[in-house]
Structure formats: C-alpha cells, structure tokens
Here is the input.
Amino acid sequence: MIWRITCSVLVCLVLSGCSAAVSRLVLEEQLLEADRAFSDASLEEGPAAAFADFLDPNAVGLPNDGPPIVGRDRIAQFLSEDPDMTVEWKPETAQLSAAGDLGYTWGRVTATVPVANGESLTVHGKYMAVWRREPSGRWRVIGYMNNRSPSLE
Here is the structure.
C-alpha cells in the first residue's frame, strides 16, 4: 500500500514538473513569436509605428552611439526622424524569469538608410529586448538596446 502511494506521488511530481517545463517552452516560443511579429511590423509599417505598438509606455531605449531615450512616444519620435529607414531583426533566443512574466530576446539586426545618389547604407548589429508579459498575455518591450557589429551572414 505504501509503495502504491509513493509511486502515485512520484508520478504526480514528475508530471507536474513536465507540465511546468512544457509551459515554460510555450511561453518562450510565444515571446519569440512576439519578437518576430515586432520585426515584421517594422518592415510593414516602419520602425516608428512598430515601436509605438510593441513598446510599454515607460520603455527605455538605449540606441547605439546615443543617449538613453525614455518613453514609448519619445522612442517612436526618434525613429520617425528618418522615415525612409528600414529595420529588421531575427531573434536568436529567448529567456524567461522564473515567474514567466519577464524575459529577454536577442538577435541580429539590420538597418538600411537611403543616402545620396539613390544609394543606401546598411548597418548590421546585435540587439537585446527586455519584455514584460501583461495580464492579458501580450508581451511588451520595456527595454531595448543595440550595437553595431560586422555582418555575420
């Protein structure tokens, strides 16, 4: 009898542990999907509109070679100063906090800006976005930073 109870308890513990691991994997994939949708929106609507949609109102941006920018509206305004710029990125990985309500993604980013004579300048870099999960389940960026690096393609 004790053996059956012990086995039952062990099975429940194993299954609950597996359930937590599956839940964590699902949340990580949802976070990666949110970041991919963010990049898609940047290409379709422009970076300023995408950042205005995906950022938390109190987000902090740490642009390469620039001072911190605090607030979603100020970040969107900064990005709208160059309306012909395109920015796209590909997340490499996502990590979550133990509670599953905070996480980060990082990956490779490419920005292209038109310059004189119909030419364009393309800059490659890395980025990290810190995300917070809202009670509705939607992920919003609360911190974003990037830096330049050589193209790794």
Remarks:
- The first helix runs from residue 2 to 45.
- The domain at 2-148 is CATH 3.10.450.50 (Nuclear Transport Factor 2; Chain: A,).
- Helices lie at 2-45, 47-54, 72-80.
